[in-house]
Amino acid sequence: MRPRTTIWLGLVFAGLVAGYMFTNLRAHRAVREAWEAKRLFEIDPADVLSLSIQQQDAGAVEAVRAEGGGWRLAGARSGIAANQPLWEQLAAAAAAATNERPIAEGAADLAAFGLDAPELVIVVTPREGAPRRMAFGGLDPTQRHRYAQLDAGMIFLARAELFSALDRPLLDLRDRRIFTHLGDGLTRVDYERLPVEPESGSALD
Question: Which residue pairs, CB below 8 angstroms and at least 24 apart, start in 156-162?
Fold first, then answer.
């Protein structure tokens, strides 16, 4: 193959690669911009200072971000250790919440969307700004979204995966470990077998 032909083919190949990369970059940028436009809270997970989770017919469970970056439960549950990894996941999920499609605005019938008695309510307190309340109602006909409302404003569709990520009971939100201060690991376990007295009238009598 002649050197001139080789150079020409190389330039054509380089142009094709550059065009492919430019097209992909534009597509990625368009997807990113579309997602940014739908975000409810323009914050990063680290900007979530407190988060409250309230399931239907249950009390709210609130956790606040401590100075060291960890989480601690607040209010009446302040003596309970928080599930640190889960609260980080919840903060990330809340920060990434999106409005997939507006449904109704103004004085809408909340009962028609299951928002008169929400199945889940979260309150996000950002580093800057006032706390924001987001309520989740029933599923839409596609079963892929939940009707939701931010504060007392517009009703919109939120992804069902967001609801599933945030819908956690206290049992999940607290640290269920018994031994939480084993910095060097568990090196020895001693146990003692205790005698069990059979109850009167049992098959063991």
Answer: 156/99, 156/100, 156/101, 156/102, 156/103, 157/99, 157/100, 157/101, 157/103, 158/97, 158/98, 158/99, 158/100, 158/134, 159/98, 159/100, 162/93, 162/96, 162/97, 162/98
